[in-house]
Specification:
Its EC number is 4.2.3.4. The chain has 362 residues and is an alpha/beta fold. The protein is built from 14 helices and 12 strands. It has 2 domains: 163 residues, Rossmann fold (3-Layer(aba) Sandwich), CATH 3.40.50; 187 residues, Up-down Bundle (Dehydroquinate synthase-like, alpha domain), CATH 1.20.1090.10. It has a 4-stranded parallel sheet. The protein has a 3-stranded mixed sheet with strand order 1-2-9, sandwiched between helices. Strand 11 and strand 12 form a beta hairpin.
Length: 362
């Protein structure tokens, strides 16, 4: 596994040791070096990176607080001011060491400073390893709206090192696993079965192969539709239209959901919509619902909360004029896109979510 790489059309994804060797050799080509971390990764991950890539001891470290709420324009302006103070130029390199908040926002900050400096991603969470750090999407939140500000831009390279998974709680690992489930649902029935069967008893040695396969699936989709203009890339949004609405509502509360937890609930709702609109069989919807609700926590969503979630959904980036478009499952492993879904159907999907959760509890 350590020798495997994925060559995308814009950059190389390295797995484990080989990427660090490549990075060490590339670093003298940049005019100055910067590492962006958060308060968690600076304590738990930074020293591992510096031991493996000694040249990075020359780098200036930028550290932001931990959490989704830090994915904002204020931190972007602060990072840009620090880059300016350190005389960064267009040949400088920003290394994003962290989870999705760091790789998303760090890539965006690098893209806008001086109209673009170099950056690369070293994701430290499972979620970032299989989703946030790959594919070329960078961005920040607008208030509580997910990823409303951003650009497509690509890192110089990407290093995925499962060592960092040792720093994660079980909750964080489960959050990342939701994206693994998604890849199986939209593109590979066999992958879905593998994740489903091993999800509650995942062995340490399994992670490399699952992460590698997830990146292969995503790269195949992104290669055909890099900027989401043709439509195929929209299938990566399965579960995210409703999931982002749920995540955005709970983000400013005392008990925010992890991204993967919200997306799992979104996938249950959107698989129900797939069935309701005569796309997916009821049997497969029930299989999806039972699998995900046995792993991810359900949140009580009353009428008042639902109406607020619907407001977030109506502001989703995938909305066209007044219509909300979804990617829906035809069957497990096959996803189609550009389905217009009414508000009434969306509301009914939340009622189904509650019923399905009650059945799991029983």
């Amino acid at each position: 596994m350590t020798e495997k790489v994925i060559e995308t059309i814009h950059y190389t994804i390295f797995f484990n040791g080989e990427g660090y060797f490549t990075l060490q050799n590339k670093l003298p080509n940049y005019s100055s070096l910067f590492i962006m971390t958060d308060t968690h990764t600076s304590q738990l991950c930074l020293q591992h990176l510096l031991r493996l890539v000694p040249y990075l001891k020359k780098a200036r470290i930028f550290c932001i607080p931990f959490g989704e709420k830090e994915k904002n324009i204020q931190n972007g302006l602060d990072i840009c001011r620090k880059l300016n103070k350190e005389n960064a130029d267009r040949k400088s390199l920003l290394i994003n060491l962290g989870g999705g908040v760091i790789t998303d926002s760090g890539g965006f900050f690098a893209s806008i400073f001086k109209r673009g400096i170099y950056f690369l991603n070293i994701p430290t969470t499972l979620l970032a390893m299989v989703d946030a750090s790959t594919g070329g999407k960078t961005g920040i939140n607008l208030d509580n709206l997910k990823n409303e500000i951003g650009v497509f831009n690509y890192p110089d390279l990407l290093i995925i090192d499962k060592h960092y998974l040792k720093t994660l709680s079980n909750r964080e690992l489960k959050s990342g696993m939701a994206e693994l489930f998604k890849y199986g649902l939209i593109a590979d029935n066999f992958f879905w079965e593998e994740i489903k069967n091993r999800s509650k008893h995942m062995h340490w040695d399994d992670w490399n192969e699952f992460i590698y396969q997830a990146n292969l699936i995503k790269n195949n989709i992104v290669t055909e539709d890099p900027s989401e203009r043709k439509g195929l890339r929209k299938i990566l949004n399965f579960g995210h239209t409703i999931g982002h609405g749920i995540e955005s509502y709970f983000l400013p509360t005392y008990s925010p959901l992890r991204h993967g937890e919200a997306i799992a609930l979104g996938m249950v709702c959107e698989s129900w919509i797939s069935w309701k609109m005569n796309v997916l069989s009821q049997k497969q919807h029930e299989e999806i619902s039972k699998t995900l609700l046995s792993i991810y926590p359900f949140r009580e969503i009353n009428e008042q909360i639902l109406n607020k979630i619907l407001k977030y959904i109506r502001q989703d980036k995938k909305k066209l004029q007044e219509d909300i478009h979804f990617s829906l499952l035809r069957e497990i492993g096959i996803c189609t896109y550009h389905h217009k879904v009414s508000n009434d159907i969306i509301k009914q999907s939340f009622q189904s979510l509650k019923r399905n959760n009650s059945e799991i509890d029983d």
